[in-house]
Structures are given as C-alpha cells and as structure tokens.
C-alpha cells in the first residue's frame, strides 16, 4: 500500500501535468479543469498534514 507521501507526490505531478497542458494557462482559474487542479492540491495538503 502506498504511503501518504508517495500519493501526495503523484497527485502533485498530476496537477502540474494538467496545468502544463492547459491552453488557458494565461487565464488560470477560468477553465473547468482548474477546479480539478485545486481539488488535487487540496488532497495533497490533507495528505501532507496527516504525516
């Protein structure tokens, strides 16, 4: 089973990858995928706080 830190690293990588591929990077926050990225970052924060 993965440790929280390993999961957090994977989620961070996924969020960064989504941001890199976003065609609206200039208007960050306006695209629907931005909500997904925020959710991933919140999950990372929660996992980091539980260590």
What form results from the Cα inertia axes?
Answer: elongated
Structural class: mainly alpha
Mean pLDDT: 85
Computed CA radius of gyration, to the nearest angstrom: 12 Å
Q: What share of the residues does DSSP label as strand, in percent? A: under 5%
**Would you identify the regions where 5 or more consecutive residues have pLDDT less than 50?**
none
What share of residues is helical? over 70%
Please trace the helix and strand order, writing H or E for each element.
Answer: HH
Contiguous helical run count: 2
The main pleated sheet reads as: none
Oligomeric state, counting identical vs distinct chains: single chain
Structure in a nutshell:
The chain is mainly alpha-helical and 51 residues long.
Q: Keywords, please?
A:
about 50 residues, about 70% helix, mainly alpha
Q: Can you offer a commentary on this structure?
A:
- By secondary structure, this protein is mainly α.
- It has one domain (1-49).
- It is built from two helices and no strands.
- The chain has helices at 4-21, 32-49.
- Helix 1 packs antiparallel against helix 2.
- The longest helix has 18 residues, at 4-21.
- The chain is elongated and about 35 Å long.
- The mean pLDDT is 85.
Protein topology:
Blueprint lengths: L3 H18 L10 H18 L2
